[in-house]
TrEMBL record:
Pfam family, one: FMN_red
Compositional bias annotation for Pro residues: 188-203
Name of the featured protein: NAD(P)H-dependent oxidoreductase
Gene3D superfamilies recorded: 3.40.50.360
Region (Disordered): 182-203
Origin organism lineage: Bacteria, Bacillati, Actinomycetota, Actinomycetes, Micrococcales
Ranges for domain NADPH-dependent FMN reductase-like: 3-144
């Protein structure tokens, strides 16, 4: 079975990302089409990006980066559980994303987003643009949770019917794209380039 990682996109104490990601994890496990793992950015203790080299080179100097890269390398597909901070993604999710390059390449990603009236969709729109830079495929199918506080009862996440119904179509598309992209992902990315030309790291 292909491997799906569900990335918890907030590291904030008291985060809603925790229970929402756990729900998504349980639903994906029950669905049975992926081997599923919950991946908590907080456990990797990533400082604000402190690697010397551009991530497309994969020359990771720090143990925390190597550990994070090894984890992400294991997956075939991703779900990002994303809050919306100031109409964008959380700094924690973006930072964890920026650490790596080829580990994300040619993988499909779907989003479970939440927040106020926009349900985190503005953050998702920003992340979709960013993930394409490393040749990830962001999917339109996902789970959106507007006014998410209304879905919490005494600290427990009680998903609305719309969210329950959105999980299976999201996993179906993730699976199709996982199969379609599998050969490319196995082959790996082309030689690293930047818009300005080939990467020439400083010594
Ligand atoms: C720094 C910050 C900025 C926020 N900006 C937005 C926003 O732009 N849109 C929104 O819907 N909610 C916003 N919120 C509210 C979050 O949706 C809410 O706090 C949510 O619980 C954050 O996810 P988390 O608990 O998993 O960290 C913001 C919260 C924080 C802490």
């Amino acid at each position: 079975m292909p491997k799906l990682q569900i990335i918890v996109g907030s590291t904030r104490p008291g985060r809603l990302a925790g229970p929402i990601a756990k729900w998504a994890f349980e639903r994906a496990v029950a669905d049975g089409r992926f081997e599923v793992e919950l991946v908590d950015i907080a456990e990797y203790e990533l400082p604000v990006l402190d690697e010397r080299h551009h991530p497309v080179l994969g020359r990771y100097e720090h143990g925390h980066t190597q550990r994070w890269a090894a984890k992400i390398r294991e997956a075939d597909a991703f779900i990002f559980v994303s809050p919306e901070y100031n109409y964008g993604p959380s700094a924690a999710l973006l930072n964890a994303f920026d650490y790596l390059g080829r580990e994300w390449t040619y993988a499909p990603v779907a989003f479970v987003s939440y927040g106020g009236i926009a349900g985190g969709l503005r953050a998702v729109q920003v992340m979709k643009q960013i993930v394409t830079t490393v040749r990830m495929m962001p999917l339109p199918d996902g789970v959106v949770l507007p006014l998410v506080m209304q879905n919490f009862e005494e600290g427990d996440f009680v998903p609305p019917p719309s969210a329950q119904g959105a999980v299976a179509p999201m996993l179906t598309e993730l699976l199709r794209w996982t199969h379609a992209l599998g050969p490319l992902r196995a082959e790996g990315p082309p030689p690293p380039t930047l818009p300005s030309g080939p990467v020439a790291p400083r010594p």
